Structure formats: structure tokens, C-alpha cells
Amino acid sequence: MKSWFTKWKISASLDAGKPMPESLRRTIDADPELQRFAKRAEAHGETLCQLTPSGPPMHDSIMRAVRAAARQEQPRRDAAWRWWVASGALAALTLVSVYWTHLRPKVPVQQAMESPVMFLEMSTNMLAEMPALMMSPLSNEWARVDHDLQSTTKVLMASLP
Questions:
Q1: What is the dihedral of CA 20, 26, 30, 36, to 10 degrees?
Q2: Coil, strand, or helix at residue 110?
Q3: Domain ranges of the chain
Q4: Most CB within 10 Å of its CB: which of 20, 25, 32, 73?
Q5: What would the pLDDT profile of 61-84 be if each residue is shown by its tens digit?
Q6: Which contiguous run of DSSP H or E holds residue 107?
Q7: By C-alpha distance, which of 39, 43, 52 is closest to 7?
Q8: Of 12, 8, 57, the residue nearest 34 (C-alpha)
């Protein structure tokens, strides 16, 4: 870890173009690995300084190649996706239309006079059925209370000696 930090210091001082501090120079002189690294870093730095930078023509040619590759990829994926969606939508539309025309249950047509006739029949029967309908919940409850009393009487009578 210490040597990595020292290598970073060497690289930073070479990048800055200033002379190395004396403490760093002493550390490099004490370690042969750091001496090799410093020599290689200086050689690489000199080589890079001698190279001419690539100008806009190289950048433009690279970007044209990247754009051309992106344009070639895109249409193939989009065409397959569109066909898949269109065929699914067409199948769903066909199923809905078949159901709507052939398989849907038909609602029977009622006669125009059915409702009034039913209302008149209900009104004549209502006088006879209304008391029973109103009293049936109370009658049912009273029957259950009577059943409970009868059951309690049987249990008590069975428990007496």
C-alpha cells in the first residue's frame, strides 16, 4: 500500500512538471522497485510528449462509425416488435368480434304489456300475502324460542330423580 502511494506521488510530480521533493527522492533511492517505476514513468512521459495529438478528423471518423452501427441495429428490432404487437392486437380483435356476433348470450325480448300485468296481479295478491310476510320473521323467532323452552324442559326433567 505504501509503495502504491509512493508511485502515485511519483506520477503526480512527473505530471506537474516540477522537480520531485527531496523526501520523495530519498524514498526512491532506497527502493529499487521505485527506481524502476520512476525511470519507466519518465520514459513514458517523454514518449507521450513527443506524439502529435490526433485532431478532429480521427474523432469525426470514429463518431461516424458509431452512428452508422447504431442506425443498422435499430430497424431490425423495431420491425419485429411492431409485427408482434400488430398480430396480437389483430388476434384479440378477432376473438372479440366472434364472441360479440356468435357466442354472446341473447337477451330475450319482453312483451310490452308484461310489466303492467305483473303489477296488477301483485296488487290483488298483496292483500292476502302481506300479513304473512310481515309476521313471518316474528313467527320464526317465536318458534325458535318455543323450541329452546321445550329442550330446556326435557333436560331439566331428565336430571330430576
A1: 10
A2: coil
A3: 2-50, 131-161
A4: 20
A5: 888 888 888 776 555 566 677 788
A6: none
A7: 39
A8: 8
